Amino acid sequence: MEQIAYARGLRRTQTRAGAKLWSVLRRRQLNGWKFRRQCPIDRYVADFVCIEANLIVEVDGATHSTMQECERDAVRTRTLESCGFAILRDTNAEIAENLDGVRETILAAVERRLSV
């Protein structure tokens, strides 16, 4: 239950990049694929999830470039992959500068996951 409350809080205080990406993923705008935001999975809260494709999209800010954060991200990725998900990481800068490219990359990843 604690994780659900945490996820709800994250939805209310989303980052600018997260809000921008959510604007193109919500309401099945990505070729009809349903995404959830701030979705609890295992002991983590994933930024965006397409359950049908078992795909998680993570939005990484500047703090994800430190050695400590990279190590945490690696553990997080292994845990989420062990739950059957593929992880796609995009940076705040990528979303701000090339939202169409990020959208196309996510769409390609969804389609690739479903064609396997």
TrEMBL record:
Which CDD domains did the record assign?
Endonuclease_DUF559
**Which Gene3D superfamilies does the entry link to?**
VSR Endonuclease (3.40.960.10)
* Protein's UniProt name: DUF559 domain-containing protein
Provide the species name.
Answer: Methylobacterium cerastii
UniProt domain DUF559: residue ranges: 3-110
